[in-house]
Amino acid sequence: MTSTTTPQGGTPATSANPSLSSWSATWLVAEREVTSQIRSKSFVISNLITIALIIGGIVIANLVGGGGTSAAKVAVVDGVPASATASAVEDETIEIVAVDDRAAGEALLRGDEVDAVLVPSDSPVGYTVIGLTSPPDGVVNALAVTPPVELLDPNAVSDGLRYLVAYGFGLVFMMSALGSGAMIMQNTITEKQSRIVEILLAAVPARALMAGKIIGNSIIGVGSAVVMAAAVVLGLAVTGQAQLLALLTAPMVWFVVFFLLGFVLVASIFAAGAAMVSRQEDSGAVMTPAMMLVMLPFMGVAFFGTNLTVMQVLSYVPFSAPVAMPARMFFGEALWWEPVLSLGILAATTGLVVMLAARIYTGSLLRMGNRVKLSEALGR
């Protein structure tokens, strides 16, 4: 049998079903959150579109960057020095087609079967390049003798790649956190507005209800992040970028760990904020601060991704650590102890925020009408 009391300004929590353990109640709510989203057509369609965009973007970027170009075919007449084409053949920039004489090479060139013809000559290099209607610049550049090059900092990373990696990690975290956070807020407010929450609290405790919502949406969020990571792996594998894929493996594992704690941190804030309002039109007052806590770190990483000092600081800030630290690890700029320390700070912060959010959630969930003040939600 359940009991209720009615203090000034709202209705307090209803005693939950004592026959249901706290963990069973939490998992029951989590399972409900997961199944309701997975069965949603909008969720499935949005994820399929995201996967297609990720794989398509990697393929297009690879083609635009020259990854899809093939070696030029060159007809080489007997008598051309082997040293003339050795370097280009080794670099796979040209493909040799041996011919007996110039006439045979010209026939292949006119038939568009080759891009150029190399014939022996009295020139200083010992051969001449023949094109059809215009100089074959690609072949000429491939055959050109270039001086040896030394790099002072061979491991330096371009600003473009640095920005792309930071932006990619940040975008995945922001989209997942904001999407699931908004879902938690919308469902919570709907349950309050329709008074369904009173029925739910007759079966499960308020803390179990909040924990179930966070766990369920965390499963969805982490699952979506893993699917996105798998799409990246597939895109890199299809385009033959094995080296970049090897560099991403360890940072991706750390990203999932950081993502899980960061997601729980953000979801707790959304859940606590949602419990303080009873109408969807009032949600902006509590949703905007929660969104800013997610978007500001993302913007910081996106805008300062090339600044090593700022990125080092952001990798220890709980809301930006899930993005900044894996990005630093990708470029090998973090010492072995840094991700451990950053993860410890994030875990401690998440624990404190979850406890505070649970206090706000239980103190606000059954208060109907106007938005609950923070002092009232935290009061006994």
TrEMBL record:
Keywords: Membrane, Transmembrane, Transmembrane helix
Coiled-coil ranges per UniProt: none
Recorded superkingdom: Bacteria
Keyword Transmembrane helix: yes
InterPro entries: ABC2_TM
Topological relation to the membrane, as annotated: Multi-pass membrane protein
Membrane-spanning parts: 42-64, 164-185, 219-240, 252-278, 290-314, 334-358
Gene Ontology cellular component list: membrane
Source organism of the structure: Salana multivorans
Gene Ontology terms, MF aspect: ABC-type transporter activity
Protein name as annotated: ABC-2 type transport system permease protein
Domain ABC-2 type transporter transmembrane: 41-358
Predominant place of localization: membrane
Subcellular location: Membrane
